Amino acid sequence: MTEEIAVIPGDGIGTEVTPAAVEVLEAVGEFEFVQAEAGDAVKDETGEALPEATYELAASADATLFGAAGETAADVIIPLREAVGSFVNVRPARAYPGVDALRPETDIVFLRENTEGVYAGHESRLSDDLSTLTRVVTSSASERLAEFACEFVEGDEYDEFTVAHKANVMRETDGRFRETVLGVADERGVEADEVLMDAFATHVCLDPEKFDVVVCPNLAGDVLSDLAAGLVGGLGLLPSANIGTENALFEPVHGTAPDIAGEGVANPTAAILSAAMLLDHLGYTEESARVDEAVTSVLEDGPRTADLGGEASTEDVTSAVIDRL
Ligand code: ATP
Ligand code: MG
Q1: Which residues, 6 or more positions from 309, have their beta carbon under 8 angstroms from its beta carbon?
Q2: Where is the domain boundary, 195, 214, 232?
Q3: Quick check: is 247 in a domain?
Q4: Which of 113, 157, 257, 309 allows an S-S link to 13, with CB 3.0 to 4.6 Å?
Q5: CB of 63 within 8 A of CB of 281?
Q6: Residue in 40, 99, 235, 273 to alter for ligand 1 test, most ligand atoms within 8 A of Cβ
Q7: Are 319 and 227 part of one and the same domain?
Q8: What is the ipTM of this complex?
Q9: Residues of the chain with pLDDT under 50
Q10: pTM for this entry
Q11: Each residue's pLDDT tens digit, 112-145
């Protein structure tokens, strides 16, 4: 059976790097691609940033490849993550040989809780002087994340994970998160240690090799994985996966990059690596590894886009990756 892959390029360089990722997928397998619209452009046309049909498609497809959305990003990506039932955002931050990086030894995968924390809390303006925010942490969501983390490290070259939290201050919410995650690891016989998230921010800069897989609450995962992105040399390289109960959505970490959009010079690496994560998720482990190796090889000595100091176009890099598959 051919898997159905929803393709939602969105705006800006999303419309340039997403087709590049599709080309790579076409080179390694047989999939049925269904195109859909979301973002600023479709909002200008129809009044809706996320048309119902796009939401339904993401909810029913075997997997979704998403590019980026401009000003409407929050109206697009949050419901899309919900459409696929996503409970974890997987964000690898790996430095590649040949690419300038502050910390070339960095190789960390962040598993970020994707449904609650402060992002699911309610903000209120209580007076002219006072605004508040509630923070949501459930044992069930923490447990689901922990189960995923255990499977993730069991199925990989890693055999343990680190949970980052601030349970010494947020005793109730992060306390629940910490206790639940460590509890699940203990039950499953997976080794897990812990780190205070502020200390993590320092340690990861000084000695990134200390960490392999880091499990975080929502906001901390957002911030700390961006910090690690800075250590490995750039937004154009980082993929991500939103894994759901039913299906999953894959997207580059970067946005629409309006400063370079339309010129055909965007780095397609993050989108192509997102496609590699999609392949792995659908069970095409060998194909996923081939894409990863081809990308690594091109980054090492192949054509480069301007963000990496080269002069190549998006298409040059994409063709080079396909040639080396
Ligand atoms: P948005 O508003 O959609 O978040 P942004 O400009 O704030 O857009 P990014 O799109 O993440 O944020 O881009 C930040 C910077 O990194 C920009 O200067 C952009 O040109 C550069 N950049 C991001 N992604 C790429 C890429 N794939 N190739 C080359 N440069 C990139
Ligand atoms: Mg941005």
Answers
A1: 100
A2: 232
A3: yes
A4: 257
A5: yes
A6: 235
A7: no
A8: 0.94
A9: none
A10: 0.93
A11: 999 998 888 789 999 999 999 999 999 999 999 9
